[in-house]
Design a protein that fits this description.
By secondary structure, the chain is α+β, with helices and mostly antiparallel strands. About 15% of the residues lie in helices and about 35% in strands.
């Protein structure tokens, strides 16, 4: 499985993500992704979603800056309570686990 992905549509203003965790819950596969530029933008998607080429492209696609970082990102950062920070936990099977 590729670890770098590009969303075809901006998610909170950003499009480049890395795959941190992969897990199975109730016999369905899920993938935890985090933005390359901002750890506060993290999502969990199903295997069906990540395999949908209308939603995700493998690798980091070369995009113009205004396509990879949209005005929605600035709006997200302005609306975000700066004291709140959702932590990301990396499981032991992740390529990013270093302990």
């Amino acid at each position: 499985m590729n670890y770098s992905w590009t969303s075809t549509k901006a998610i909170k203003g950003l499009r480049h993500f890395v795959l941190l965790n992969h897990y199975i819950d109730n016999e369905k596969e899920f993938f935890q992704m985090v933005s390359v530029l901002d750890e506060e933008i993290n999502i969990t998607i199903s295997k069906k979603e990540i395999q949908n080429s209308e939603l995700w492209e493998e690798g980091w696609q070369e995009l113009e800056k205004n396509e990879s970082i949209t005005s929605d990102y600035e709006d997200f950062k302005k609306s975000k309570n700066s004291s709140f920070h959702e932590e990301i936990f990396i499981n032991k099977k992740s390529e990013f686990y270093i302990s």
